[in-house]
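#struct-help
A.M.: can someone run this one for me? Single chain, 246 residues.
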Amino acid sequence: MLQKRKQDIVNYKKQSRINCFSCFFIHSLSRFLQFYIQPSSRTHYCFLLLHLVQVLLLLHIPLQLIFVLNFNVAIRIDNAASIGIYDTKANKVYGINYKPYESFTFSGITLWNNLVVYAMRGNSNKKPKLYFYNPDKNIMTDSIDMGFNDYGRIYIQQNILTGFANNRIYSYDLKKGKLLWNYTFNNNSIGSSCLLHNGKWVVNTNNKMPAELSNVIALPFNNFHEANNILYCISAKYLLRINLNQ
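D.P.: on it. Structure tokens below:
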């Protein structure tokens, strides 16, 4: 027990150092964007910030997901259900009390207007909701309960939210508060997904897509990334390139 406690302390110290490094890295880069890049070019370089932070993810740094919000950063860190803001100007981190959500695991995150939409996956005892986090007030301002146990990776286009959970693909009108459609599959048969430049999605699954989901491309590959109309994905130890123009 004593040895385990010592190891926990060592792991905590390592994680704390990594968290400090993560925040310092983002802070330094964001200050560079603010002072040395012309405002007309900052949107482009914000994407550079996102891609560079992906390097941190590959290094297993626990600051796992970010979105640029006027040079502030919405982060999920340490606990699976935690969410907060890293203020790049003040070099300060703050977030919600995650205790009400700690039995859930993370599924997806995206932006809608000035809110962060946060999707989680529940367990056998408790089901989650779609949560709306206000970074300015640092509170969960709203939620949507569709009765799902997993809300999956989420995307928003013109107030229409589309989700790819482990066992369903669904669409919800945020303005009208209406579930538009919901297609269910076997548990854990839906993997990673990606929204393409042409408005279509690609998803890692062996399921046959219904005819109504003609804008969803099913591929037996994983970890999608699109650049210059080329879709990159991983199959075992191979990196594949798929020309989307063909």
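A.M.: thanks! The chain has two helices and 18 strands.
D.P.: also worth noting: The chain has a mean pLDDT of 76.
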